[in-house]
Amino acid sequence: MSQLDSHLEENASRHEERLMELLRIASVSADSAHAGDVQRAADWVAALLSEGTQLQVETIPTAGHPLVYAESPAVEGKPVVLIYGHYDVQPPDPLDEWLTPPFEPTVRNGAVYARGATDDKGQMLTHLLSTLAVLEVEGELPLQLKILIEGEEEVGSENLEKYVAENQDKLACDCVVISDSSQFAPGVPAVTYGLRGIAYYEVRLQGPKQDLHSGTFGGGVTNPANTLAKLLAALVDGEGRIQVPGFYDDVAELTEREREEFAGLPFDEAKFKKQLGVDGLTGEAGYSTLERRWARPTCDINGLWSGYQGEGAKTVLPAKAGAKFSFRLVPDQDPAKVTAGLRQLFEPLLPPGIEMELIDFHGAPGVVFPLESPAMEAAATAIEHGFGSRPVFIREGGSIPIVNRFAKELNCEVLLLGWGLDDDNTHSPNEKFNLGDFHRGIRSSAALWQQLSECGIRSAECGAT
Amino acid sequence: MSQLDSHLEENASRHEERLMELLRIASVSADSAHAGDVQRAADWVAALLSEGTQLQVETIPTAGHPLVYAESPAVEGKPVVLIYGHYDVQPPDPLDEWLTPPFEPTVRNGAVYARGATDDKGQMLTHLLSTLAVLEVEGELPLQLKILIEGEEEVGSENLEKYVAENQDKLACDCVVISDSSQFAPGVPAVTYGLRGIAYYEVRLQGPKQDLHSGTFGGGVTNPANTLAKLLAALVDGEGRIQVPGFYDDVAELTEREREEFAGLPFDEAKFKKQLGVDGLTGEAGYSTLERRWARPTCDINGLWSGYQGEGAKTVLPAKAGAKFSFRLVPDQDPAKVTAGLRQLFEPLLPPGIEMELIDFHGAPGVVFPLESPAMEAAATAIEHGFGSRPVFIREGGSIPIVNRFAKELNCEVLLLGWGLDDDNTHSPNEKFNLGDFHRGIRSSAALWQQLSECGIRSAECGAT
């Protein structure tokens, strides 16, 4: 065992304590009531990085939540790597479904349960802790690291995107490393070479100026909840095909190689259904479940509300109805074109007596990186060192909008190294992160700095497709 | 002016104070947290009736909220009249839309604003206060009154229906009088000869056993909110025709006379739209707005919920989705047939991975009484005395399920004498009742006991169609 690996093993409890500290901070970026907690999380990350002897740390204010940035010295002839992560978390609702409180991290069966455990505090910390460990053991890093941790990933990363666009020289790098995704399965680590994009909307319908009695007025007045059902039902047909005009025009189809590789992965559909507690799966006709989750666009309603939601029967004709819904996009779909098509779909469906407000929350296209590259190979070797087995190459259904921004603005490859698991309950109650994977992630990360320093990548060689 | 009318005038303030007292009691029958308030309202009504020298008062426990019953002595050769009303109220949500708190009655522009002001505390009290006034002035009533006030009208009247079915002899009468509806317009009092029925449902869909990340799982798993939109959108077609199989089979069409009379009423559609704050009205094609509201069946979604309803964007694939929705029925539709048809409509639309629970809350058929009858004429004369103008004969879109029960179990006519107004915000925030109409209602009610005592109706002559 190397001196570095021994050091990591000796410091395992200290690393876990650090994770628990950060998980105790309720840094919910979507909820303005938690603004103070979000700031506390930023301060905590900055303080941690300040322990690195060679790191220059700064907290960068934005129009929203701050960025935390740190940089080590340039190393002659060696690549520059940018680590990205986020210290903000999703809202914890519904609270009553958590077995232990979301901001009181609790260890059960080798995993820590807390909001943000896997998304992204736990995964992000692996790179920060590996960096501090290398500095502690070696006194210096084998390449230059730039570390950029934001607090608005769960609300669209608008201020980070602006910052990246305006600071291309400062952030210039050969490769970006992000851990905010999953292994393929327990013991089957993965490098994710593709992500879906997203286009997220809220539609608000206003009917009569106030709630009415559904007996006295029903039949005479347009009901906004009835109209909402019509709009939402029009989004997808019975075959799972999205009905937004032009939606499929720019969809990059799966290659034959990809379809074969996905089909060869050890995916157990019966187990997957059991894990979710469902007796069947549906989606776009003609594609396997993995294809539908990773490489085909979708439409999901994320929230719905109208009228009376309490106990019993209330005969109300509601004044308002609303929904949040989102599309997952694949290359080469453009979120702006989706928005235009959506208006084209909805507007003819609006009856007299209804006013619609369509809010375009945030969008990002999907992205796919080339499977063969020196950085991908370096990552595979580092993960094999940390996890004991070579990773598979997969795609992911989720979106990390900033990945597109990095690829485009910094003209570089992005390595997506997921330490999480599919059953980590990301964005759901009882989110967790396996502590074993936390430590394997730190070990892989420490090895990655060495592998990348030796792989020979240079800016000129990097580029996203 | 008669001695009775003078007495009513002199006691106007006392009558208003009585109304305010009852409105201060938050007797929300649908919410078990208010069970104590509902009991207090029952006690208050019983105490009021106990002031009537000739009234035998009892509070009758049920499996739910109690009934309050009072009876005056039989009068030889004169009819028996049953007064029905309810002391329970709708939930006050959404609370933040009330200008003044729902259970702190406040007078503005001659109207009292409070939950239950018009539905039904204010209207119901007119008959109780007129009865007490007659007893105070005359020492006796010109006919026998039976007074039955319940506390579960807003939750389906199940226990009252049971009580009526089991106590037909005790409640035997020639005619039932109910004030729980509206005038046609301010200054245009109305006798309502028809009511719509109702069939109220809640549908609950369960998809995956918990909320999931819509990126990681979207496209692979059936989304219950998407399915809910499909089910609800299938209820009504683009022409406003309800798609439940067999729904229109038993619908009694409007007569030519009715269509002509409705068309002759002073209904100002432009003003109606302005009052509701909408730029257009929709509903079943081929029928006028009044016809659609009074005499055609409808389907309205009353409540909707799923997933994330908070601020910002949460990328969740929800585990559950639900809705409350109801049909307004007309003679001769049967709620049980609607339930069967609804299952027939929904079941084929359920995709794999979704479980449906369909809750049948309560149902009642619609009802229409004959326009020509001595009791209708007596009511018209009494209202002319109280309001200064002869009433029009109209139908109402709302449901009073117990009306059907009275007509059927007691084999008698039901007089629906509405003192309220269409803009009283029944079931909505800022419910109100005009105090002028409150006093005119008391005056009409006092005259009604006299008119009915002289109209010559007897049990044998009464009967609903």
Automatic annotation (TrEMBL), chains A, B:
Family matches, as Gene3D superfamilies: 3.30.70.360, Zn peptidases
Enzyme Commission number(s) of this protein: 3.5.1.18
Root EC class: hydrolase
GO biological process, one term: proteolysis
Entry's Gene Ontology molecular function annotations: metal ion binding; peptidase activity; succinyl-diaminopimelate desuccinylase activity
Start and end residues of each Peptidase M20 dimerisation domain: 193-352
Keyword set, alphabetical order: Hydrolase, Metal-binding, Protease
CDD domains xrefs: M20_dipept_like
Domain of life of the native organism: Bacteria
InterPro entries xref list: Cyt/Met_Dipeptidase (IPR051458), Peptidase_M20 (IPR002933), Peptidase_M20_dimer (IPR011650)
NCBIfam families membership: PRK07907.1 (NF005914), PRK08201.1 (NF006053), PRK09104.1 (NF006579)
PANTHER family referenced in this protein's UniProt entry, alphabetically: BETA-ALA-HIS DIPEPTIDASE, SUCCINYL-DIAMINOPIMELATE DESUCCINYLASE
Name used for this protein in its record: Succinyl-diaminopimelate desuccinylase
High-level lineage: Bacteria, Pseudomonadati, Planctomycetota, Planctomycetia, Pirellulales
